[in-house]
Amino acid sequence: MTTTLAAHGGPRTLNVDGPHYQWPTVDDSLEEALRVQLHRSLSDRDARGVIGEYERAFAAFVGVPHAISFASGTAAIHAMSRIAGLKPGDAIVAPAYTFFATASPFGFDGIQVLFADADTCGNVTAQTIAQQLQSNVKAVIVTHMWGNPCRMDEIAALCTERGLLLLEDCSHAHFASWSGQRAGTFGDMAVFSTNQKAITTGEGGMLVTRSDRFRELALLYGHYNKRCLTEIDPGAEFYPFAFTGMGLKHRITTLGAAIGLHQLARADDIQARRRTVLDTFVKGLDGNPVITPVSTPAGQGEHGLYVIGLRFHVENATVTRQEFIDLCVAEGAHEVDAPGSTRDISGEPLFARHDPFAPWQSGHVEQAMLPGVRAFQGSFLKIPIWGYPGDQELVEGYLAALNKVTGAVSR
Ligand SMILES: Cc1ncc(COP(=O)(O)O)c(C=O)c1O
Fold first, then answer.
1. Pocket test for ligand 1, best of 23, 70, 74, 97 (most atoms within 8 A of CB)
2. Ligand 1 centroid from CA 122, angstroms
3. Which residue's CA is the nearest one to ligand 1's atom 13?
4. Residue with CA closest to ligand 1 atom 7
5. Atom 10 (ligand 1): residue with closest C-alpha?
6. Which of 1, 180, 309, 372 could lock 118 by a disulfide, CB 3.0 to 4.6 Å apart?
7. How far apart are CA 247 and CA 235, in angstroms?
8. Please, what are the domains in the chain?
């Protein structure tokens, strides 16, 4: 193999036109599922059709009694906030490093968000959460970043000890588990975004819970009228609100639910292929001094299979992370990427705003990036995990490109 990089006039490692990641796989069976749904119903007001089928399949997939669908993960997180009973004056501990929607619905309501630091996987820990606890904290939300599960036994023990509600943002963690227990089953409620995630509905979100009460409240915060009137216990103190709900509607579309149902029927195949791809990179990058896969220690957790995260070791390289990425892109590995939207969110003005009726008035934002977040964010890059027929050329090409560039830039 030549050592001349494509950026320096050598041959490209990978010659496949982009885009290099398209999800879900649009095949005949998905087109047929959507065609059938088009004729079946474009709007369901209750759970007797595809929405109920999708929710039941999702609950079985996670292993929880209840799954309630929403128009987006963000809407579902907002419902969790309201179900948790959080209000201005209360506080929640959230990751400083995450996609902002983990915390933005709390900011919308003027709830104080206290930001916890990240470990070497980009995740909050019981320790970094404990550092933020103060008397008005009522809940904790964690994100299993990029697919690596948080250390949930320790976090759950902390929340139980302090009497805090535990919420999980499982948007990256559809296939994740910690100590043999599925992500999304440790807390009081969990949300899975299904926007372009391992299980996707195009746009959408799912709230899962073991609690019958939280399930009914989730209906009230997302699905008014018919579903609430037929599915909420008439004896519940909030039943009088069933007709109007709490005022808002956040239903998923029937076509989105049909895509989700189609995906869930293939979840085992998606998981098997994605795990193989992940293993290929873990093995193929073994001993690479410049980039190493970001993963929880073997045996402790299963990866959620959202993307493959990589750590760039600048101390072992003659180039910066961005220069490394540019060299990979020149090799044809277009989707080696340092994420822009998922980053430290602790300084965002949304979180300094504590009056929900004064939307554009923020307080003073005073924020130094936490040390774990700085280290993780400054060294992280990612590649797709693919997981569909015909992805082998991309898997091999990206691995070859990463190793070729490493060979040229390692100290
Ligand atoms: C960690 C995380 N939380 C929440 C969300 C929000 O989900 P949605 O885009 O479905 O509203 C996302 C979306 O990318 C996410 O990555």
1. 74
2. 16
3. 193
4. 73
5. 73
6. 372
7. 21
8. 6-24+267-409 (3.90.1150.10), 28-265 (3.40.640.10)
* Band (18; pLDDT cuts 50, 70, 90): confident
Contact, 195 vs 189, CB < 8 A? no
| d(C-alpha 95, C-alpha 104), whole Å | 12
* Mutation test residue for ligand 1: of 141, 146, 167, 171, the one with most atoms within 8 Å of CB: 171
- HSE-CB at 377 with a 13 A cutoff on CA atoms is 19
Span from the CA of 99 to the centroid of ligand 1 (angstroms): 6
List, chain by chain if needed, residues with CB within 6 Å of any ligand 1 atom: 72-74, 98-99, 101-102, 143, 169, 171-172, 193, 195, 205
Tens digit of each residue's pLDDT (9 = 90 or more) over 302-335: 999 999 999 999 999 999 999 999 999 999 999 9
Q: Please write down the HEC assignment for all residues of the chain.
A: CCCCCHHHCCCCCCCCCCCCCCCCCCCHHHHHHHHHHHHHCCCCCCCCCHHHHHHHHHHHHHCCCEEEEECCHHHHHHHHHHHCCCCECEEEEEECEEEHHHCHHHHHCCCEEEEECCCCCCCCCHHHHHCCCCCCEEEEEEECHHHCCCCHHHHHHHHHHHCCEEEEECCCCCCCEECCEECCCCCCEEEEECECCCCCCECCEEEEECCHHHHHHHHHHHCCCHHHHHHCCCCCCCHHHCCCCCCCCCCCCHHHHHHHHHHHHCHHHHHHHHHHHHHHHHHHCCCCCCEEECCCCCCCEECCCCEEEEEECHHHECCCHHHHHHHHHHCCCCCCECCCCEEECCCCHHHHCCCCCCCCCCCCCCCCCCHHHHHHHHHEEEEECCCCCCCHHHHHHHHHHHHHHHHHHEC
Distance 344 CA to ligand 1 centre (A): 15
* Ligand 1 center–CA 142 separation, angstroms: 13
Whether pTM > 0.90 for this model: the answer is yes
